[in-house]
Fold:
Amino acid sequence: MRAATLTAFGAPLTVHEVPDPEAGGGEVLVEVLATGVLPYTAEVFSGERRYPLEPPVVPGPGGIGRVAHVGPDSTRLRVGDLVWCDPTVRARDDARTPDITLQGWSSRGEGGARLSRHLHDGSFAELMRLPTENAHRLPAEAAADPARWSALGVHTIPYGGLLAGRLEAGETLLVSGATGNLGSSAVVVALAMGAARVVAAGRNRAVLARLADRFGPRVSTVELTGDEEADHRAMIAAADGPIDVVLDLLPPHAPSSATRAAAMTVREYGRVVLMGGVGMLGGADLALPYPWIMRNSVTVRGQWMYPRTANTGMIRLIASGALDLAPEQVTRFTLDEVNDAIAHAAVHSGPFDRTVLTPAA
Structure:
């Protein structure tokens, strides 16, 4: 098969022939039709984000594909099925705290690194090997535009955070970092889940205007200034009532003070979910006040990616029409154009801008 390989951090990807992967027991082989190129991909491949990838590696976090081979343990999947390939791979030898790797992208701890050496390569290739449980069947209508459905790779992440925060229909959500690719996705996913109001907080005025334009009065926007106290007051005012859940999706370069300003807007008995990259590149600690958390019975939790069941939930939200993919701007690139796709994604990171690689096209 043909694949794009990262040979070293800081080097462009090389497209060349490599041996076809072979699926063993508990695995499937998928022909990759479409895979998203995330806006920060260039930062990963340059080494700036310090992801624990081990070159040479075929990168790429998940995608849409057709099943080319199934193993003997597969009872529902069939060759030819259209599937979403979830990159969140969990080790099978510890049900309570499994080691995790994001296939072709990242990992957590030494156990995750070991797992990533077994499932080393991702979706920037014509074929991809993955665990059977990571292939999720898609509805027939997804076949009309697999590239558009590759947005699952973005939308499922904040969906996992909203599930962790137990967002209920009719509640108010504050999204900290709402002008990024994941943050803007959190806005639309929360509305699809029935949120009564979403407070979208971020620095990019143009993106905030696009969010308000698309969703109307259910979305209130706050342009952050960097003044922690002023931003805190502005977010509370924008909610026009209690804030039930705060979801933080700020990137690694954001200061912890921005996360703290948002987190402390949550009501008594409210929930705060941390999913962003704040602190990964150094900087001050989050430092939420102990008395405030305790006396207000606030729940603060982290969430990396999402539970396996979130894949099915997200697919259903899209298939039902509750989350409409039609307004999204999709730009497609062939495998030979992979480096152009990476450059394009970096400057097209706004809400609902999707850069998609189509390896098997």
